[in-house]
Specification:
- The structure is a homodimer.
- By secondary structure, chain A is α+β, with helices and mostly antiparallel strands.
- Chain A has a single domain, classed as HIT-like (HIT family, subunit A).
- Chain A is 28% helix and 21% strand.
- Chain A has three helices and five strands.
- Chain A has a five-stranded antiparallel sheet.
- The model of chain A has no long low-confidence stretch (mean pLDDT 95).
- At the A-B interface, helix 2 and strand 4 of A face helix 2 and strand 4 of B.
- Strand 4 of chain A pairs antiparallel with strand 4 of chain B.
Chain lengths: 137, 137
Amino acid sequence: MYKESCIFCRIVRKEAPSSIIYEDDDVLAFMDIRPVSEGHTLVISKRHYENIYDVPRTIICKIYEIVKRVAIALRETIKPDGISIVQQNGAAANQDIFHIHVHLIPRYDGQKMRFGEANSIPREKLDLVAKKIKSAL
Amino acid sequence: MYKESCIFCRIVRKEAPSSIIYEDDDVLAFMDIRPVSEGHTLVISKRHYENIYDVPRTIICKIYEIVKRVAIALRETIKPDGISIVQQNGAAANQDIFHIHVHLIPRYDGQKMRFGEANSIPREKLDLVAKKIKSAL
């Protein structure tokens, strides 16, 4: 359940850097390196499953329990007007990393969501945002 | 846990028409009346919760278990290239009905997802699509 070539598997193993806000035996939550907006978080299964078709029922539950907790923490800390929760399956649906992940994207009145168009931002900045969100988890 | 003015509460009570593909004590799945693409399905909690902040943990699990089953049924019947799974919280995130619902949107290579721009389509057509998806659930 580990795929050498998968960046999320490498993040799970701490072989690649990430700004983590939550971790348990099954689930990891960390900042998207190319945030659509500040606070854009990814919640993933630690084990490598490509998408929702493959993930066991119990793991889906665990992922979305954490999604809920992160949503509440985002609301308290980043204070967006709304949150989009998005999980893409397949390249046709703009899935870019083929390891299941749920996006939590803070949204603001009058602003469109420009998925997949953002630039990566420096690690120090991501770490600061992560710290803020983590404080409310 | 029932809101008179809520169209989804009325659908749950069968006071408003819908093309249902799945129902149990807690969860209902039916066709979006304004599908972004054929097979666009909504999975909702039967009880009225506005969004993810309010939904109990157990209900979130139940909703996403059904989301997974519907995703697999869509893959088998509608055969899209991908599926976007989207849950919007707040008007700023394009939430239109303030009763929690998860969208499953079939996606195709090279086609953008035009959220909230589609027209409603006739009930008979929705019923036919529903029947097809239901056969694989």
